[in-house]
Design brief:
82 residues, alpha+beta, GMP Synthetase, Chain A, domain 3, three-stranded mixed β-sheet, 3 strands, elongated
């Protein structure tokens, strides 16, 4: 899942910086933990295409880039975008 998130975001935004962290282990046993170890992710991304957008627009663009194939399989996505 982590590699798929990285690939999709890199293709969509050509970022100058991109970090994707799997934080699922920090949420073991909590709501949304499906036992796969791939339910909670944190993304830090910097890209010129995102810089001119509002915070809400950036989040929407990232969710669109990931698509339902990714967003439908994870519980949480923390974003630090700009």
């Amino acid at each position: 899942m982590l590699a798929e998130i990285e690939t999709r975001l890199a293709a969509a935004f050509s970022p100058t910086a991109l970090t994707v962290e799997n934080e699922s282990h920090r949420h073991a046993g909590h709501a949304g933990d499906d036992g796969t170890g791939e339910s909670h992710f944190r993304v830090t991304i910097r890209a010129p295409a995102l810089a001119a957008m509002s915070r809400v627009e950036r989040h929407r663009a990232i969710h669109r880039a990931l698509g339902p194939a990714v967003t439908g399989r994870i519980h949480a996505l923390a974003l630090d975008a700009g």
